[in-house]
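Quick start: what a row looks like.
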Amino acid sequence: MIPQTTLEKLRSVVGKENVLDSPEDKIAYSYDGTPLLQQLPDAAIIPRSVDHISQILRLANEEGFAVVPRGSGSGLSGGSIPVDNSVVLLMNHWNRILEIDQKNLTVWVEPGVITANLHSTVEALGLLYPPDPGSAAICSIGGNVAENAGGLRGLKYGVTKNYVLGLEVVLPNGDVVVTGGKSMKDVAGYSLKDFLIGSEGTLGIITRVLLRLIPKPQASRTMLAYFDKMSDAAETVSDIIAAKITPAALEFLDNTTIRCVEEYAKLGLPTHVESLLLIEVDGRKAEVEEDGEKVVGLCKKHHSLDVRVAATEQEAIQLRTARKAAFSALARVRPTTILEDATVPRSEVASMLERIKSISSKYNLTFGNFGHAGDGNLHPTCLTDERDKDEIDRAMRAIEEIFLEAVRFGGTITGEHGVGLAKRKFLEQTMSEPALEMMRKIKDALDPNRVLNPGKIFKLRPRCEGPMPTNREQIKKFLEMGAYT
């Protein structure tokens, strides 16, 4: 518990109105979008300047409390969950688009800018910021950078890290670093911005972001293709890529998700099919027409029951809704929705989905599956009820098996949601001990007092503790015993 004398010092830094420590405020900032994880902070702090953040972190080092940065709180791995003896630093008020430079195709933004607001602002100028997480309507750019967020357009355009040119960051000791810039080429020293992207708020607090923009594509074509077999959908994906077509979006939904979306959004989806693909191609008009015809042909080649092609932008929006509404539709079914992300090579998508189906049957659970077929990033979503302790226990065991299967297929435990608290116990199963030790050394070098979002991604060992086991069977036993969790 942070003493009142320390809270008074925080009030003297940011003003008493910017230190929120009522019971209601503590509850409001005790959780994020991750189910089953919650802890009360000692207070929530609203900094109004970079200097405020520097002073808060210096005070944290002096007084021995932790600082947990938070944007919109939409994260799905527990990255902004408070820890013991901590304050939450609220960055959602930092929501200005500072500069749009059309000559250099860049934009400076504050970390609290909502991703969808940035999209609409630059698109009105004929420009595009490609990363589009499923939560774009509510998530913030700072959180996107901290988690290296992906999205529906990731196959063609890449993820957040591909568009970050520069950062202003406050380090754990309170120092301010500006790294990167508008130069398209810069190899002077270590690439510090790349070092910070995806660090989940453990190495610095982002206060400004310089992003790269691209010209908005001239045209696009959006299609929904329905299949009786997931294997046919998977073969279609493989053939589209083999045909040297790179769709802007190549997404899938399974039957459970299709039925939930149709009940929720009334889009006229056939509820008897096993899967559907949402496919969008974009670029120059002639290229889009050619690629669109090829895609329809490939869908038919692999026994697609039907291919719906949007004739207008309004129809395209409706077809995209089939994918964008997936999580919301599934979340209506049961009180607790556990949305995971596991990634496998795209050639293994069908096999991985079969394993998820088998695992859900083994544990008598309901899973809806959707995700990015084009890059193998799957979102197995368990529909459950946290009040049923036995069901939750079965869900946790099923999810662990799903992660182990993803690794067995040559994949990983997370493609875009991050590790945070929710997955840190699985990290040891997918990363070598030297790599883990390298990360711990980086954390200790920048944050020796462990004041900034401690305990996320991996558990920080006591300095007197020896190395963790490296044998996977040993690690599994440790995990089963509850060690390193």
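That is the whole record. DSSP finds 17 helices and 19 strands in the chain. The chain has five domains: 4-90, 97-215, 219-327, 334-408, 424-481.
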